[in-house]
Amino acid sequence: MSTAPKTLFEKVWEQHVVVEPAGEPTILYIDLHLVHEVTSPQAFDGLRLAGRKIHRPDRHITTVDHNVPTTSAYDRLHIVDQISAAQVNALRKNCAEFGVEFFDVQDASQGIVHMIGPELGATKPGMTIVCGDSHTSTHGAFGALAFGIGTSEVEHVMATQTLPQSKPRTFRITVDGELPFGVTAKDIILDIIGKIGTDGATGYAVEYAGSAIRSLSMEGRMTICNMSIEAGARAGMIAPDETTFAYLMGRRFSPTGKAWDEAIAHWKTLPTDEGAVFDRELHIDAATLAPAVTWGTSPGMHATIDGTVPLLADAKTEADRKSFERAYEYMDLKPGTPMEQIAINTVFLGSCTNGRIEDLRAAAKVIKGHHIAAKVRAMVVPGSQAVKRQAEAEGLDEIFKTAGFEWREPGCSMCLGMNPDILQPGERCASTSNRNFEGRQGRGGRTHLVSPEMAAAAAITGHFTDIRKWKQQEGEQR
Amino acid sequence: MEPINILTSKAVPLPFPNIDTDQIIPKQFLKRIERTGYGEFLFFDWRYDVDTPDIVKERPDFVLNKPEYKGAQILIAEKNFGCGSSREHAAWAINQYGFRAVIAPTFADIFFSNAGKNGIILVRLSEEDVQTLLERSTKNPDHELTINLEAQTVTDEEGFHATFEIDPFRKYCLLNGLDDIGLTLRHKDDLDKFEQKHDKDVWTAPKAS
Ligand code: SF4
């Protein structure tokens, strides 16, 4: 290998090249394959049909998340929807047959697949990680190269522990400066998507850098990397540092003793070298950021909380104009409406974007001592069993319940509404998830993406509310 | 996967950017464990009105429901087609509905890869060329296009002629209908050698302890 300065991405990529056949894509080794019930049944079937085994069961971790009810432990074990039940049962059977580790609905380690990888310490710096799920980009927060794949690729990884891949280009997004009061990781990534567009990073592996990114906790970093796919990126990465190591230390699948020291020594070699060249760069000044709320049907369509639904004249291209018109209609919003005047009737706090303990703490802090507005239905769905336990140990569940929130069992829930948690047509939701596509949370449902703090404030007032003023009213210091 | 080379067919115009995979195949159909039978659910929420769970009505104004477009094997859309969720069900639905090719200015990465694995030709043309084709197919539903994969061209009888780029390996796989796993297993020796070395590095193991 050459000694020219390299990016984090290039280092991880090079360390996983199995072979580079002439004129063909590179065969890349995959360290960890995460599996869930929705995108795997056809892959297991494919293996069976071809008489193949899973090449490396030890590099697979499986759980159920998308389909599981969140109402009660009983409901999870007795799924009423027969088609969902069949899918969950298929995974149970497949894991037993192919010998892969499976965290079932009531397992202490169950949760959204992108939550449990990090929680278990399975997700580590410098690894390659894939999953039949686009938000696999989440794991890049640890300095792993992590990306979503389709079901044919799921089968390919199962059979060979590799994937044929073309090398993406590199794109560094540097966010420098101190984040203003009330601005979160969610607002950073929404701002980025708004700036570069939902296809702005297509074909690129993005590295997030800069002092504002460094200052984030692992939870915040995961929120950012999670939504890389919303800008079309193949992957999003953040270089590992002391925050990363502290998070990983002592986790179930983290190395210990001498192996830990060896791992740390390796992880410290991963950050992008001084002078390494990226194919593209973007700089953002953190001081310019404000809490964001999406108004349309793609994550790039957002305004700041003190802004308005944009005018048609704000559309930059003909394509944007068409999207705007369609979005006004679907979202039932008039151009020029101040964001703070938009009333909501549902609040969803959860998902692999913002279903972590820090998110729940932040929201609980906002609602403490308040009650949700009349006619608002609000639910908290912790992203994993571990988050749920932790939150309950800290008494957050009581704060939520006292404020009128439903306190649920872990899973994807209303992020995509494959289980019974869906929006009814016309319902308007402040959601901490990642996609505001038409019908994403239920046919005819209207989704506005926000940070956990902003979702919490909206639950209390019944409309979007500037968390910066809220915090001032509360007399809080950050 | 079926080999494909020359495709002549009328085309369905879907003049929107950012068509995401949630629209191509909504989540309720992702619960199935089969790999077939998705064609009838393609663009479900745009194609049908659902009054009650049992009463599903076609929306006559949606392009796929117009009789004149039945049988088309080419779909034309605007930029960033297939963005969002990684669900391969989107590629299955498109394929099983009967489309063998999609023409757009750009495609999202994961969809791009999924489509290739299902024998769907994705043709990237300039915004301008796509607009021309959208207009022609909107004006005349019987307007036929020819996609020639070998030659990497799109043509019609009104003199339209455009060439498109495609990765040579992807082209080779599409032309020959090749299965990826089989191709990778040709490198089994390299894989074994790699694993012997790689397994020694403790930080590569998901379960280090
Ligand atoms: S929480 Fe939402 S985005 Fe995350 S894995 Fe589940 S469905 Fe996908």
Rg from alpha-carbon coordinates of chain A = 22 Å
- The gross shape of chain A turns out to be globular
Mean pLDDT of chain A: 95
Biggest sheet strand line-up of chain B: 6-5-4-1-7-8-9
**Which chain pair has the greatest contact?**
A-B, 88 and 60 residues
**Overall pLDDT score of chain B:** 94
Estimated structural class of chain B = alpha/beta
Q: How much strand content do the residues of chain B show?
A: 15-25%
Count of alpha and pi helical runs of chain B? 8
Number of helices of chain A: 18
Poorly predicted segments of chain B: none
Q: Tell how many strands the DSSP assignment of chain A holds.
A: 19
Q: Roughly how many Å is the radius of gyration of chain B? A: 20 Å
How many β strands of chain B by DSSP? Answer: 9
Question: Tell me about the biggest sheet of chain B?
Answer: 7 strands, mixed
Percent range of helical residues of chain B: 25-40%
Structural class of chain A: alpha/beta
Span between termini of chain B: 41 Å
Described by the principal axes of the CA atoms, the overall outline of chain B is: globular
* Bound ligands: iron/sulfur cluster
Amount of helix of chain A:
25-40%
Can you walk me through this structure?
The complex is a heterodimer of chains A (478) and B (209). Chain A is an alpha/beta fold. Chain A has helices at residues 8-14, 41-50, 73-77, 82-98, 113-120, 151-160, 185-196, 211-214, 218-226, 242-248, 257-267, 318-331, 351-354, 357-367, 385-393, 396-402, 452-461, 467-473; strands at residues 17-19, 26-29, 32-35, 60-63, 101-103, 128-131, 145-148, 162-165, 169-176, 204-209, 235-237, 280-285, 292-294, 302-304, 346-350, 377-381, 406-407, 428-431, 446-449. In chain A, the strands form five sheets. A five-stranded parallel beta sheet of chain A has the order 5-4-3-6-7, with helices on both faces. In chain A, strands 17-16-15-18-19 form a five-stranded parallel beta sheet. In chain A, helix 2 packs across helix 6 and helix 14 (357-367) runs parallel beside helix 17 (452-461). The model of chain A has no long low-confidence stretch (mean pLDDT 95). Chain B is α/β, with parallel strands linked by helices and 209 residues long. Chain B is built from eight helices and nine strands. Chain B has a seven-stranded mixed beta sheet with strand order 6-5-4-1-7-8-9, sandwiched between helices. In chain B, strands 2-3 form a two-stranded antiparallel ribbon. Chain B is globular. The N and C termini of chain B lie far apart (41 Å). Chains A and B meet through helix 2, helix 4, helix 6, helix 11 and helix 12 of A and helix 4, helix 7 and helix 8 of B. The complex binds iron/sulfur cluster. Iron/sulfur cluster (SF4) is lined by residues 65-66, 112, 114, 133, 135, 351-352, 412, 415-416, 433-434 of chain A.
